[in-house]
């Protein structure tokens, strides 16, 4: 019996399970999924959990059930590719024939002094819960700094404004305008929403130091009561320690079949994989689709295609509270209520198909 081990129950490995179960898994293959939590977490919604506009239960989906699927709960301490085993923090070991690593990412602090120690995070459900507790207990008039105006920072700042009208929110953006990689119209829409809702966007910022209750933007000292860091991610340490080449962001360089170039039995999916796109749930799912096809072909001893098809993404969507949003789909910008409804619909469909 071949043993497929999936590390992490994120978007990529959930798509692997969705495609293999219930009836596409070969009779001679069993699966073990290892995750820290006994359910799949909707990471794209952590901002709402932290802001207090979504409950914990709303952003969880049960893992599938199958007679040849074993769920194991724990944290991965080491991936021993030489001996084809995974070592957990409780010193237990799981051997594998094929491995799909989807352990996700953690915050990247860019060597900013104090950033790790004095900021909150939305990169895991555990840390998002801690961020929610801190933000929800702030007294009226407190100042919240959100460092990083990418999609996570924008959604957190807007959702927090909707949750707590009494807070002062400062969103620190390194660029001269919000979302500079996208059309000016989209940037203008997001900026106008922040202006209308009293969220201060600090453009061309560079956070050089973080202290308790103080941010240093260039040389300026800015008092804050809480700081949430959304200014970059990197693969978790277990993945950074994998053998082989990494890119400038420490993501694992893979073959076109999504496995380590020197090990066809170890695949990497999602935020940990070096791909020509920014990490996203959509990207992880599209990559997982190809990984499943490669796995099935190899299990059947079939030839792989000389060239894997290029991954194509449909675009992206973001929310500005519960009523407004923005999207960039098929090179077209969509803003307002329609964009928010689109995002809500995609989330509903995801829960329907996976839950």
Automatic annotation (TrEMBL):
Keyword Endoplasmic reticulum: no
Domain called FAD/NAD(P)-binding: residue spans: 3-281
UniProt enzyme class: oxidoreductase
Keyword terms of this UniProt record: FAD, Flavoprotein, Oxidoreductase
Any Pfam family matching the protein: Pyr_redox_2
Stretch forming the signal peptide: none
Superkingdom per UniProt: Bacteria
GO molecular function: oxidoreductase activity
Enzyme Commission code(s) on record: 1.6.5.-
The keyword rRNA-binding appears for this protein: no
Required co-factors: FAD
Classification via PANTHER family: 64 KDA MITOCHONDRIAL NADH DEHYDROGENASE (EUROFUNG), APOPTOSIS-INDUCING FACTOR 1
Family (UniProt): Belongs to the NADH dehydrogenase family.
Annotated protein name in UniProt: NAD(P)/FAD-dependent oxidoreductase
Organism: Jeotgalibacillus terrae
């Amino acid at each position: 019996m071949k043993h497929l081990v999936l590390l992490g129950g994120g978007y990529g490995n959930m798509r692997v399970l969705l495609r293999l179960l219930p009836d596409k898994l070969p009779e001679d293959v069993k699966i073990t999924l290892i995750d820290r939590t006994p359910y799949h977490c909707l990471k794209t919604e952590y901002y709402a959990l932290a802001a207090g506009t979504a409950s914990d239960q709303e952003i969880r989906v049960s893992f599938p059930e199958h007679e040849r699927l074993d769920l194991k709960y724990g944290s991965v301490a080491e991936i021993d590719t030489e001996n084809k085993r995974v070592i957990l923090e409780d010193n237990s070991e799981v051997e594998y024939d094929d491995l799909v690593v989807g352990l996700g990412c953690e915050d990247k602090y860019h060597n900013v002094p104090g950033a790790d120690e004095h900021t909150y995070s939305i990169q895991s459900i555990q840390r998002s819960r801690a961020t929610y507790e801190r933000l929800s207990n702030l007294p009226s008039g407190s100042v919240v700094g959100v460092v990083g105006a990418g999609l996570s920072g924008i959604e957190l700042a807007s959702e927090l404004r909707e949750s707590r009208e009494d807070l002062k929110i400062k969103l620190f953006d390194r660029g001269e305008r919000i979302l500079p990689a996208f059309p000016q119209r989209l940037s203008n829409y997001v900026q106008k929403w922040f202006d209308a809702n009293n969220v201060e966007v600090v453009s061309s910022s560079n956070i050089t130091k973080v202290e308790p209750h103080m941010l240093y933007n260039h040389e300026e000292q800015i008092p804050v009561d809480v700081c949430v860091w959304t200014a970059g991610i990197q693969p978790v340490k277990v993945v950074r320690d994998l053998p082989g080449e990494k890119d400038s962001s420490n993501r694992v360089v893979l073959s076109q079949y999504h496995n380590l170039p020197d090990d066809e039995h170890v695949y990497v999916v999602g935020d940990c994989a070096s791909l020509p796109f920014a990490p996203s749930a959509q990207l992880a799912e599209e990559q997982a689709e190809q990984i499943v096809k490669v796995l099935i072909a190899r299990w059947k001893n079939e030839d792989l295609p000389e060239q894997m098809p290029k991954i194509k993404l449909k675009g992206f969507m973001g929310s500005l509270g519960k009523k407004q949003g923005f999207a960039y789909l098929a090179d077209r910008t969509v803003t307002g209520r329609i964009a928010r409804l689109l995002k809500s619909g995609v989330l509903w469909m995801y829960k329907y198909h996976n839950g």
